Give the backbone structure.
Amino acid sequence: MTEKLPFLIIIPHSGLEVPEELSGYENVSPLNIFFEADAGAESIFSFYDSVLKTISSPVSKIFVDMDREYKLLSPVTADGVIKSKTSMNREVFKTDCYPDEIAISNILNRYYFPFHESIRNSFKEFNFKAIIECHTHMPVGPANSQDKGMPRPLVITSYTVDTDSGVKQTASADMAIELAAAVAKNLSREGETVSDIFRVSDHEGKGFIMKNYSLSGIPVLRLSISRSLFLNENYFNLERMTIDERRLYRISTLVKSGLEKFYRKCF
């Protein structure tokens, strides 16, 4: 396609930075932070020249999770906007160093609210046909996940969220199926999985982005691809914590092609 795809791409979890307000208080290493992030997501999904808008964050999700409601904090939950535990149940902060209310307010005003303001402002600038929230996932469900220890497919999409009035669709099931199938077909020769090549989840309850921006009336879908495609001994340097850029470019090209097929089929 020569014209830009009329999509808003949101990449909330690709960041690796520690907010300077929290530097020195963290109980996690750069390696921990790397593996908590959506590795490769920024390079794979940043289709700046191919979609109407891409929005991402440089900050690690364990310090500011853009996909959680800003009121969701410890001790109510360990998996809130500022986390107290990682996905592997490691304490995020040193003892008694979880930020206080003043620090939390400053952090949210500096990082969280501008991220979401940029999303809202983009609605005024562009006429989007769909919002796609993009992630990369671990090949096996981590310790705090619903599918703990279970193998995961190459591609996962979802189209529902929890609300006070029950489970709500943010897009049609057919859209979620078409998106998953189009991307998975392109990636199917790039890696192996003992699971199916794709899965459509009809229950993705925690996501604030899907729940909040589906109110705009624009279909919102969640797309995630497996890190097994690039986070392996062939393409990943553990010592340097770097991924082969050529590999990421290839995966990005295949995903973009899948999005083009999805657009032609559903719009």
